[in-house]
Amino acid sequence: MPCSISFVGRYVSRCSCYCCYCCCETASCLASPAVVARTSNVPLHQLNHDSTSRADTGGEGRCPFLQALRAPPMVQMSWLKRVQLQIFAPAEFQAHVLRDRGQDTVVQAPRQAGFSSFFMPATGELVKALLGEEASGNITQGLAEKGGFRAFGTLLGEDSLLVVKDPARHAYLRGLLQPAFSADAVAAYLPDIEALVSRHLQAWQGAGREGVKAHAALKALTFDFILQIVMGRSIPEQQLQRLGELFSALTSGLLAWPYLDLPFTAWHKALAAQAELCSFFLQGCAEARQQLAGGLAVPGVLGRLVAAADEQGNRLTDQEIAHNLLLVLFAGHDTSSTTLTRALANLQDHPRVMQRLREEQAAVQQRRGGAISADALRDMRYADAVVRETLRRDPVVGALARV
């Protein structure tokens, strides 16, 4: 089993400085030669964590990534506090364990139930070197066979990009999926995006003095948004509500340890929800293929995925599409709604920023017209800065996993 690395986003000043967790299970690590070279001037790290005894039997076969690092100091923190911070406040955990470390580049946290030992590099340059190896296939995203991460492989599907470990297959799927999310593709979705967002804004205005709860309203908007843009059509309200219930059951299953498939458990409900959501996407695939066979254009992300083909004429299967649309829903829903909520909260606290944002919007409308277009978005440099500052202040993703 290769070593796995999960990156915790932490933004400092204007630059994106990432730190990471690295957990190594055995000796068969495919660690980047570039990473080893960058750290070869420090003493070799003698493996002493608690994953396997095989990793400690002599120099042959040891993880080269860990061998190239100086021995990391152990995190001095109670088990309960460590669990609480790592799960619910990863940025605070990172700041706490790296505080006053000086030149130490790595700290180590002991093994926890369902996971491996964690190693956290403190330098952004080292993490950039690790992330840069994704293109070579030495580092991938698959964690479906590691402890608590197995739930991702089961619930998101074996063909999800988050689950696929084989570098060649990952590149193949990525090559067929990416065009549906390119800049040109997104520009084609803009009229539908504008209509959908306008509809939700009108509903908020209709709430009057009662107002709306921002996070709940934005979760509803982003869920509706993702499904409509993916399917290329509006979803009836009753069906949308049912799909929302299924999605909530699915995400609840990700933390449903010990993952017992019994009728009363959250894991059982998550498996049933995953099957019904996949059925919804599979039905959409079948309908889209029928439309294409009849010479009709199929809108939305789904239409582009069904029609996608590589240079050899290979096409995505319905299951590959369904599993990756589940991933789009999983990766895009809470992240987007939470970021939007934080953006609104920050703007409320900074009225001068809000005013400047409104002035930019008015100027862009005067130049480009009322409709949202790709050119208009490119002109919204201050709005882009507001989004980036929101992400810097409140990073919505606690960790990124790599193997």
Helix-strand blueprint:
Blueprint: E1 4-12, E2 15-23, H1 33-38, H2 64-67, H3 79-88, H4 90-98, E3 106-109, E4 118-121, H5 124-131, H6 150-156, H7 167-177, H8 183-205, H9 214-231, H10 237-253, H11 266-293, H12 300-307, H13 318-349, H14 351-368, H15 374-379, H16 381-393, E5 400-402
Antiparallel strand pairs: 1-2, 1-5, 3-4
Helix pairs in contact: 3-4, 8-9, 9-12, 9-13, 10-11, 11-12, 11-13, 13-16
What does this protein structure show overall?
Strand 1 and strand 2 (15-23) form a beta hairpin. The strands form two sheets. A three-stranded antiparallel sheet has the order 2-1-5. A two-stranded antiparallel sheet has the order 3-4. The longest helix is centred in the C-terminal third of the chain and has 32 residues, at 318-349. Mean pLDDT is 77; it is low at 1-62. It has 403 residues and is mostly helical. It has helices at 33-38, 64-67, 79-88, 90-98, 124-131, 150-156, 167-177, 183-205, 214-231, 237-253, 266-293, 300-307, 318-349, 351-368, 374-379, 381-393, and strands at 4-12, 15-23, 106-109, 118-121, 400-402. The chain is built from 16 helices and five strands.
Shape: globular
Oligomer: single chain
Query: Residue-averaged pLDDT, rounded?
Result: 77
β-sheet strand percentage: 5-15%
> In order across it, which strands form the biggest sheet?
2-1-5
The sequence of SSEs as H and E is EEHHHHEEHHHHHHHHHHHHE
* Number of DSSP strand runs: 5
Regions with pLDDT < 50 over 5+ consecutive residues?
1-62
Most strands sheet: 3 strands, antiparallel
Total of DSSP H or I helical runs spanning 4+ residues:
16
